[in-house]
Structures are given as C-alpha cells and as structure tokens.
Amino acid sequence: MTKAKKYWKGLAELNNDPIVEKLRQNEFMEEIPVDEFLGDKDLSSSSTSRRDFLKFLGFTTAAATLAACETPINKAIPYVVKPEEITPGIANYYASTIYDGHDFASVLVKTREGRPIKIDPNKTAVNARIQSSVLSLYDSSRLRNPMKDGVDSDWETVDADITSKLNEIAANGGNIAILSSTIISPTTEKLIADFSAKYGNVKHIQMDAVSYSGMLDANEASFGVRALPTYNFDKAEVIVSFGADFLGNWLNTDYATQYAAARNPKNGKMAKHYQVESTLSLTGSNADDRIQIKPSEQAGLLSNLYNALNGSTADSRIAKLANDLLNNKGKSLVVCNSNEPQVQTLVNAINNILGNYENTLTLSSPSYLKKGNDTDVATLISDMNAGNIDALITYNVNPSYTLANADEFNTGLAKVGLKVSTSLYMDETATKMDYVCPDNHNLESWGDANPSHGTYTLMQPTINPLFNGRQFQDSLLSWSGSDTKYYDYLKNYHSDNWEQKLHDGYSSEVKSAIILKKINAVTPSFKLVKSDAIEFEISEKISMGDGSGANNPWLQELPDPLSRACWDNYLTMSASTARDLGITNWNISNGALNGNMVNITVNGTTYNNVPVMIQPGQAVGTVAMAVGYGRTAAGKCGDGIGFNAFALGNGEAIIEVVGGEYEFAATQLHHTMMGRDIVKETTLADFINDPTSGNETVLYATHDGNKPADQVTLWDEFDHSTGHFWNMSIDLTSCIGCAACVISCHAENNVPVVGKEEVRKSRDMHWLRIDRYFSSDMTKELSAEEKISAIDMYAEMEEPSANPETVYQPVMCQHCNHAPCETVCPVAATSHSAEGQNHMAYNRCVGTRYCANNCPYKVRRFNWFQYSENDKFDFNMNDDYGKMVLNPDVVVRSRGVIEKCSMCIQKIQEIKLEAKKAGKTVKDEDAQTACSSACPTNAIVFGDVNDVSHEVSKLKDDPRKYDLLEHLNIAPSVFYQTKIRNKA
Amino acid sequence: MQKEAEIRDPLILGKKSYHDITKDIARPVEGKANKYWWILFSLSFGLFLWGVLSMAYTVGTGIGAWGLNKTVNWAWDITNFVWWIGIGHAGTLISAVLLLFRQKWRMSINRSAEAMTIFGVLQASLFPIIHMGRPWLAYYVFPIPNQFGSLWVNFNSPLLWDVFAISTYFSVSLVFWYIGLIPDFAMLRDRFSEKTAPMKKKLYSFLSFGWSGKAKHWQRFEEVSLVLAGLATPLVFSVHSIVSMDFATSVIPGWHTTIFPPYFVLGALFSGFAMVETLLIIMRKVVSLESYITIKHIEYMNIIILLTGSLVGTAYITELFMSWYSGVEFEQYAFINRATGPYWWAYMIMMSCNVLTPQLYWFKKIRTSFVATFILSIFVNIGMWFERFVIIVTSLHRDFLPSSWSMFSPSFIDIGIYLGTIGFFFTLFLLYARTFPVIAQAELKTIVKSSGSEYKNKK
Predict the structure, then answer these.
(1) From A739's CA, which of A618, B53, B60, B109 has a CA 20 to 30 Å away?
(2) What is the pLDDT of residues A501-556, one digit of tens each?
(3) A225 part of contact set with chain B, CB < 8 Å
(4) Which residue blocks in A40-127 are alpha helix, DSSP H?
(5) Which residues on chain B are in Cβ contact (under 8 Å) with A965?
(6) pLDDT score of A36 more than 80
(7) A721 near A945, Cβ under 8 Å?
(8) Pair A748, A930: CB distance under 8 Å
(9) Mean pLDDT (whole number) for A7-15
(10) DSSP string of A66-81?
(11) B107 vs B340: CA distance, rounded Å
(12) Which residue of chain A is at minimal alpha-carbon distance from B127?
C-alpha cells in the first residue's frame, strides 16, 4: 500500500490557519492601488509631454510592426516519455480494414507520430472513397459525446437509460429491432446473437443503401444460397455488363484489378467488353462496345439474349455480343445491375447455359459483401407503423436518407418507444432518435470482417478515439450486460495466431465449398417493351457513393470522371433529348459552365429547379441522377448540395422545363481532343500486327534530313546516365479513370480544397487530374474527304458524339528534362534535379505565374489565396482536427506561390535513404509514388529507368510508349502507353 | 526674273517673339489652374485612388481577386503592362531618333512626349510587381548579393531581361528628359522673384542646377543631348523587343513567333504616337498652346501612324500566313481560334482599330483635322490594348490540351487597377502641366529665327 504524502508550504498551512485559505482566494496578496494612482492630481502634470507620448507611440508602433514581420514560431514539444514504437519523422504502418457498410477494403494505414495520415492498399484495391476515409476520421462535425434527446450526455446515463428500457421491453415481451448495414464481421454477428439471447424477440435486419437484394434473392432461388457470387473477371474473355458499374461502384473494389488483368494486350489477347446501359458509367466508358438502351428494355433484352443463346435470333443490337458469348462458353461473364430478383434469375440462367459457373464466377465460395434484404426492411417499416416495434437500434445506416420510402420510415419511427442510433454524425436518422451513441471511426476501432468465403481481415485502431465515442460492439456488450471489452472478445474469437493475423491484416482459411442446389429449370421471360416516356434511373458517383462521405471535402471536390463536375449532382441528359426539351448548357464569359433547370417528378416525388447536365453517352429518352447528394444533416461541407436521388427511385419521369440558370463547377470545360494526338490509340488487331501502331514516329524535315522530334534540339542534354533517373509510365489501356490516384495524391501532398466557387473559376488545385476526352463525329479524315473547311471542322469537333468512345488520361507534372517552366522563371524557383525531376522551391517563388503559362500541359497550380487557416476556405485546412491529416513531410503552401506534382519527392528521398542504410539498391516494389501505389489496375508504374530490374525501364522501350506532345521535344520523364481497344 | 527658293511653312504660328514664347510657356506654371484642370484632376485623382484601393486589396487577399485561372495566368495585368510600355515609346523616338535626324518639328512636342514616356513606364512598371503572388519579395528578381546561399536570378528568363530593359529604359529616359529641362527650369527660376514666390524660386533654382546660359553650358548641353540621344535610340528598339520575348521565347502557340520583336516595336511606336496625339490635342486647348502645337505636327505624326499602322497590319497578316504555312495544327488552331473562337470580337476590335483606321490617314482632309485625329487616336489606343489582350488571352485560353481550355473574365479589381493606372498617369501629367515647362522653349527659340518668312515679311 502506498502512503499519500503531503507537503506544506509552511507551518501555517499545516495548522490549517484560516489566513492560508483567505490568501488562496485572493489572486493578489495586496490590494492594487488603482484609485490611488488614477486619483493622483499630479498625473495630468506629469513629465510625459505630448511629444514624448508621440515618441513612445511611434516607437511602440514601429516595434510592433517589426515584431509582426517575424514568421510566427510554432514550438514542437518533444515526448517526455517516448512511446517505444514511435520515432518522430518515421512513419508506422498498420494493416487494417475499412468497412463503412458500402465499401470494403483491406488497407495499410500510414501513421505519423500517432496520427493516421494515409490509407494504402493492402490485400484489396482501395478506391477514392476509402482513401478519403482518413479525412473523415478528422471530421469536426462528428459527434463528440453520446446524446440524449438531442443534448450532450454521458455514457453512464445513456447506458443506464437504454439498458433499463430494454429490460422493460423484454419483460413486457416487446419487440426489439436492430437495423444495420450488411454485417460482414463474424464477431459482430455473434455479439448481435448474444444480445438477442439476452433480450429475446430481437430482430436483426440488414439493409444496403444501394440494394443488391434482388441479386441475393435470385441466388437463393437459383442455388439456395443467399450470397453474392465471387467473380473472376480476369478469367473472362468476353464480359457483358447490363448496367453493372463493376469498375466504379458495383460490389467490390477488386474487379478493376481483375479487369485490367483480363485486358492486358501484351500477350495479344484482351477480353472483349460489352456494356449495355442507359447512363454512361465509368465501366461503360471503358467498354469496347457500348450499347445504349432504355432501362425498361433491359429485362426484355436479357430474355432475348437468353433465347438467342438457345438458338433463336437475337435483337440486332445484341446479336454480336450474343455470338461472342456463344463462342466463349465458360470464358465469358454476364453481369447485371438490376435489383429485380426475376431479372437476376435470368442472368443466372444465362451464365449457367454459358457454363460460366465455377469458371468465371462461383457461388460455392461466395462473397458476403452485401446481405441487405429489401423484404425484411419493408416488413420492419410496416411493423414500425403498426406500432409493433418497441425499440430500434440502428448501426451504420441512415434510412431516413437512403430509403426511397423514408417518409414512411420516419412516421413509423415516431411510434417506436426506444430509438437508438449509433451513428458517428447527427445525421438525418440520428436527429430523430432518443439516444445517439456515437460509434468510433474504423481507424479508431477494433474489428474483423469476412468478406468472402474463407477470407478474414482484421481491423485495428491506429489512433486513440478523438471524441467521446464508443464503438458499436462495445455498446452492444454493455447493453447486453457484459463486462468484456470488445477487444478481448475479438482476440478470443481469433485467438490462434492472433499476432500474425493482426500484423498481416488478413488471413485465409481453407473452407469446404458450399453445396449448391441445382439451378431452377424455370427461367423467367420478359417481353421487349418500347416506351416513349422519359425514363429516370439512379446512378452512383465514384466520389460520393451512397452519400455517407458527403461531409468529406476531398470527395466533394473530386470531379466526376465523366462529367468532370464536382460539388454537385444533377440530371444527366443526352444532347438530343435536351434539344427536344429546349435545354442547353453553355459557358459564361469566364468559361464556367451554366445550365438550364427542370422540375422532375418520378414515382410521385417532385424536385424543383433541378439542373440539367448534358452528358454524351446518356441514352436518348433517359435521364439519371447520382445518389449521395441532397444531404440535410451531413455537416457543414456536405449539407444542401444537390438532391436526394434515393427518394426518387427508378421509373418514368415527368420533366418540365423551368426558367433560371444553374451554376456548375466543372474542372474540364472542353470534352474532345480536337483531332490532336493527345491520347494515341489503336485497335487490338492492328496492335498484334504492329506493336507500334497508333504510335508511328513522326519525322520532321531538317537541313540534315528527316529526323524524329527528340533529335532536333538546341539544348544540351542533361546527363542522366548515372545515378537514379525517376520515370513514370502511364498505361492508357489499363487506366479506367477511377480517380483513386487523385485522392491518394491529395492525402500525400496536402493538396488544398478550394470550394465550388473557385472550381467554377477554373482554379482547382489538383496536382493530378484525369483528363477525359470523348470522341467526336467530326474527324480530320472526314473533313478532308468531304472538303469541310478548317473553321467548320474545328467547330464541329467541339461536339462529342452521342455515344462516344471515351479515353482517360491522368496528367500530372511531366517532369520535362527540357522544361519550358524552368527557363522562364526569373528567380530560378523551379529547377531540374540530377534525377530527372522538376523541382519547385516554394520559398523562392515570387509568383509571376510565367511557368504556368509556359507549361504546355497546364499542370502548374497557383495559390490564388491563402488556402490554409482562412475562414473563406473553411475546409479541412481551416480546422484543428482536419489539419491533423496533413502529411508532415510536405509543406503546406502559402498564398502567392506555384505548386505542382513533385513526383512525391518526399517518398523518393525516404526510399533512397532506406536503401542507403541497408546498403542496397532501391527495389522496384519500393519505388512508389502516391498515385502509383493507389492504382488498382497498375496503370501507373514508377521507378528508376537506370535500373534494368525496374519495370519502368522496360516500359520506356515499349513500342507503345510515347511522350505527350512529343513534337515540342521537352523530354518529359512521364510517358504514356497507347490505348488499345478490342474492336474491329 | 527672280526665282525665290521655296520656304518651309513656319513651325510656330502667330509670329512669336522670344519673349512671347517665354511668356506662353511660363503661363501655366505662373498662373492659376482653370476649372477644366480641376475637373480633370479630380477625376484622374479619383481613379488613381480607386486603383490604389484595388491594388491594396490584391496585395491583401491574393491574386485570386483578379479573374485569372489555372489556364489563363496572365491577362489584364500583362496586357496593361505591355500597353503602357508601348505608349512610352513615342516619347523616346521623338526626342532621340528625331533629334539625330534633325527633325526640328519635334521641338514643340518632345517635352510632353517624354513626360508621357516617363509616366507611362511608371504605370507599366507597377504591373510586374503587383502581378506577383508575393510582391513583398519582388527584390528576388534583382541580382543582388544575398544571404540565401548561392541563390541567383535566372538569366535565361525573359522576365529578368525585362527587369534590366525597363530599368535601363526608365533611367535613360529620365536623365534625357531632365537634361532638356534644365535650361527651361532656369528660365522659370529667373521669372520668379525671391520676394513674391520664395518657395518656387528656391525649387526652380535647385532644379536648374545653377544653369546660367553660358556658352560652355550650351555646348555641354548639346553634347550630352547628342550622347543621350545616341544611347536612347537603341533603347527604342530594345525595350519592346525584350518585352516581346516574354512571349516569343515561350512554347505557347500564338506566342512562339520570331516576328514578335519588330512587330512589337512598330506596335509600340504606333500606339505611342496615338497617345501623344491624344494628350497634345487636349493640352494645346487646355493650356493654350495652339501656336506651338499646330496641325503640321499632327500631320507629321499622322504620317508616322499611317506608316507604323500599315506595318503592324502587315505583321498581323504575316502571322496568319505563317500559321497556315507552318503546317503545325496547334499554330493553325491558335489563329483560327483568335479569329473565330469565343474572343473573335476582341480580334475584330484589334483588326479594325489597328489596321483599318490608320488607313484613313491617306486622306489629307482627315490627316489634317484635329477632331478626326483625336477620335482616331483613341481608336488606336483601344486597338493596341486589344492587340495585347488578344495575344495574351486568346493564346493562353486554348493551348495544347483541350482538357485545360478555359476562358477569362476580368473582375472589378482588374478593372479598378487598369483605370487606376490611367488615373495615376493623368494625375502625373496634369501636375506636370502645371509645374513644368511643357514645351522645350529654349530649344524652340532656336527655330524662331530660322524662318525665312519673318525676314520676307519685314521687307
């Protein structure tokens, strides 16, 4: 036992003299003689004359001014006791899992001095939303405390209340419901079971914001397994997708990786990809052949396809793909986005006759990523409305926002006795609850996941909880009356080899395949209907997903890959439908995009003044709107943007044109390549014949005969023959435009968010942008053939085709070895490194912007304002929590300087030092930039071309390699590989 | 029979004696300003203040206060810069080149033309500073010894050449102007009495550097003038050539053109003479100098405008031809876009003001009319501003990669700064008109005698 020691300041204190207490109350020992001083009659006649006063004033002003010129010094406080695993300046990585109910990924979390600052892929690909979740961790709009009736409370009170009420309900035989997202965590499922056992009458309902219930039901009907198949796009030679955006949002982030593997032209083979859809999706934009249909035609066409595979004549639109499928039995894959069980049953039947099961897709080791059940949710809502539910606990869902019948849910909710939300935010649903028991962010939590049969991943906290939240599982344990901590519960569950599993972040178990029921013989059949009505369809953006990340400024400012607009959702419409309705989009005097507005009614819900974006590739007679917008309780940056498309649902639309202009914020205002050789492309057949096809060397006439551009130069070459020479290759065939690299670059390089108004002024700060070009009906060949004048030709080239071919081209600083920017800077703030990079010395930059003008790629970004700690740019850099995501290795730029891609110089420096310490050369897999490490399709390859073991050095000699704008001969260190399409 | 040699028309009308000239030139300095002066001055000063506020706002918040964007990183700032520099050129040409060619008609106008140069260059030199993102570090562009290590300026950069060209130009012009002013300041000094105007006496005594009109003084005066004229002449060509290299040495289609140096110099003279005309036509009325600035002067200048304007027009057409002839699609598109793209109206303004309007000077009636000249000179000023706007903005807004194409629209701050410099310019000019001898009277007096008609009339 320790003895409490006490020290006294004196005997008086020991004897408890009252004077001690009295003095303690007084801040000043003696009274301050204020009255005496001010009452002094001589004060006015004191010797400080007016002149002296002015002298003092002058001096103090000058001194204050001089002092103000000093850069403020921020003191770093060292650790008193240094945590064993933390070395200041050295990053720690932890394997973990992110699962927010919509996206799943096995990730590697980079932490610096105890702060997670970046998310890298571990076992799965990591999309833009998962990359951004690290910023959501530091969202100051998160709930700080448990709430009771809308006011801050504490855990003791809340727990006591909830437990007593639950007990009361259980005692009265009431019904308790837990409404959650899909639960892929085995321990959470077990916890819910424990909870149910404790209270009895507990229903657990799972729902997905974007529902896959139809597909699950179909699989249950066909095979007796309510799960999703595991797809192997990499094994397919013909991929047919009926509206499924599997590269962007559909199910699993890994499909992009598989897809890229299936479409590597190197071996002369590329999967043929058909997309049959009405709204241009990221996947559709990558298809070799894209067939535009109306949503109502989907089921009929699938039926037609099924019959065609069985020998009847196919619809002319799909005849070719039906033929290709028949020729590739067992090596093809048909997927569909429909949420109708009958349609999905038909898709199952199609894949079945093609013999694709157990080849390109399998249900015997299924995926568990979606488990939501629409019927259960409907039953719950009717039960709630009937007053049969006494307690409702929600977890990871926001039904008041994501349900099409949210109103019905809300009315029912009012009749529930005990309403508990575990949301991190005071969101649309949480505001209607009695208690909000804020969950922790994934990066603050323990957890596990079973994304597919036999695969497990673990989630571990990488920071102490920032706020007074408690993870849902701990809440459940507490309400179940258990004393166990969830950590122990989890560790217990995964007890064998815990350390190794935690270290790796994932583990796999050999599990026997699930025995499937034989496929049902009755195949549903649909008639091909023709409808004249305008049809509305819900779409999903890669940035916003289901809208749970709406308060994340990185995601809000991430341009949509197709429309290139950000900070908005809108109705997308084809040019011809728009023309019929008298709707246009136009650029105002500073280039910004404006558009007309409409009132739209779908399924009885009307939105007024909805902006219309004319989107090439949108099928005629159809319109679409992305979900994830129209949040009302997301936080300061996500509220009041756009409309909630969940509430509309798919269906026929009534559109009425109204007056007024809408102001969009788009980062790209021009959509075609204007006949220029910017993205060089060729077809697979031509490529097999001649690998340089589409990339023929252009010769220029000189006094010394015809020469390629790189041999016509006035400059002395930089000598890059020794040391490192960092280069980057970007494969335009693999790049799908998913923008994971863009967010990765934001996180790594502290790229500022500037807001809608500034984006509208073409002042976005993205260091890495993904240019998107649509094909145009007008080409140079056509104009030569038809003798169209150059002026008319260029005017027509500005218009994209109605069903365009799309190309994506990531463009960042090209690190030219004859850089136009370097020669023009008057103060030499941008200069060349011996390793091939173009450096930017921010503190030398005076901001003439000459370099930005002279950059042919327009990748230089100017700090028009102070973007950090400025109330006018109230995003993460103006927020004490948001600033914690900043990478301490990269300086936050001040106003008035140019910034741009540095090729992640800080990462290169780190790997060089690591290699030096180890006495080895830099390994290929270690040489990564933020963009290359995030790329799910390996389109971006970075490395040292002077090291033959690096992949990039081989790619530099690839016949597909070309420099962007090579006629300028500015010798970029970034090069591209031609785009190859698998088409005739 | 007797053949009388043709006598040139007098350059000074009204049979002025030496004393008349002295009185006429000293009048604006000695007298009180009239109503028009005050109106013009308040207007200019008001604009100037607006400009100061706009600049202060820019420095306080950032260049984002302007209409620029990631694609168009220069617009009104550099347009104004080149425009003002160009305006300055006529002054140097008149005082230096015409001096070397012994063109005596220059004497009535060179003082004001040089003043215009100085004030114009002053406006111009504001822009390179305030267009910087961090103007408080503007001293980084000077090759001064520093403690930053081995940091030095980049001698490859045309912006650095600008720094040298403009500072040289400004200092030579200022010295040249000042040398010419010395005898005239002395004249003013002598006219102010110690008793009635002690301050002015002191001021002009100081400014005239003890000039006493000795033969030695005159000899030195002539020599220095000649030397400075020789020094200043190449500057007429070098400054705008270097300014043009800001564009010509870049890679941007529409900028990357070898024709730029002569094209810019001609354009500068063209706009400079137009500005001289605008100013002098106002000034001769406001300070009653009708006898000194005559239609003869205007006609001579109009002929120069006709010549330079036609050359500028030739340059425009050469540019168009070269873009087609080059076979480079980017180059071709840059010019198609100039003429038919979203900024076609700016191109049309430039073409009509700079190519068509000066052609009207083929008509003697128009060439010798003050009203027509005044109106046309304004057209040329507008046209030349648009020439720079067209070159800068239409080349930048659609360069190589269509993904970055954008447009530019000025903000109120852009407009405020431009009008502010016009206000500043006129403020300086109006103050100058009240305190300086606006005509080089000492020189002017040398041509009074040379007029043979004087003698003939006496007979």
Answers:
(1) A618
(2) 999 999 998 888 888 887 766 788 999 988 899 999 999 999 999 999 999 999 99
(3) no
(4) 50-69
(5) 400-401
(6) no
(7) no
(8) yes
(9) 76
(10) HHHHSPPPPPPPPPSS
(11) 45
(12) A848
Q: Which residues pair with A862 in a beta bridge?
A: A898
H/E run at residue A678? none
Question: How far apart, in Å, do the first and last CA atoms of chain A sit?
Answer: 86
Across the interface, which of A588, A823, A861 has its CB nearest the CB of B70? A861
Beta bridge partners of A205: A179
Determine the residue among B132, B251, B325 to mutate to test chain A binding: the one whose Cβ has the most chain A Cβ atoms within 10 Å.
B251
Looking at A64-68, A607-611, B250-254, which range is the least confident one?
A64-68
The Cα–Cα gap between A480 and A191 comes to 9
| Residue whose structure tokens are 């706007």 | B389
Which chain B residue has the Cα nearest residue A859?
B70
How many angstroms separate the CA of residue A346 from the nearest CA in chain B? 42
Looking at chain B, which residue has its C-alpha nearest residue A821?
Answer: B250
Residue of B nearest to A760 (CA): B69
- Beta strand A418-421 pairing with A391-395: parallel
Beta carbons of A850 and B131 less than 8 Å apart:
no
Instruction: Tell me the domain boundaries of chain B.
Output: 25-448
Homologous superfamily of the A226-367 domain (CATH)? Dimethylsulfoxide Reductase, domain 2 (3.40.228.10)
Q: Which of the residues in chain B have pLDDT under 70? A: 1-8, 148-150, 449-459
Q: For chain A, what are the domain ranges?
A: 1-70, 226-367, 534-663, 681-981
Any idea which architecture A681-981 has in CATH?
2-Layer Sandwich (3.30)
- State whether B401 and A811 contact (CB < 8 Å): yes
Given this structure, which CATH class describes domain A534-663? mainly beta
At B161, is the secondary structure helix, strand, or coil?
helix
Residue A262 contacts residue A485 (beta carbons within 8 Å): no
Q: What is the pTM of this model?
A: 0.90
Distance between B401 CA and the closest CA of chain A, angstroms:
6
Beta bridge partners of A773: A807
DSSP A16-32: T-HHHHHHHH-SSSS--
User: Which residue in chain B has the smallest CA separation from A674?
Assistant: B402
Is A826 within 8 Å of B407 when comparing Cβ atoms?
no
Please give the interface size between A and B, counted as residue pairs whose CB atoms are below 8 Å apart. Answer: 190
Which residue among A809, A823, A847 sits closest to B133, beta carbon to beta carbon?
A847
3-state secondary structure of A653: strand
Are B252 and A854 a contacting pair at CB < 8 A?
A: yes
Please judge whether B159 and A791 are an interchain contact, meaning their C-beta atoms are less than 8 angstroms apart.
no
A829-834 long-range contacts (CB < 8 A, ≥24 apart) are: A829/A898, A830/A898, A832/A718, A834/A718, A834/A720, A834/A723
Q: Which of B58, B391, B406, B413 to mutate to test the interface with A (most CBs of A within 10 A)?
A: B406
Tokens of A874: 């109230």
Mean pLDDT of chain A: 91
> DSSP states of A807-869 as a string?
EEEEE-----TT-HHHHH-TT--EEE-TTS-EEE-GGG-----HHHHH-TT---EE--S--SS
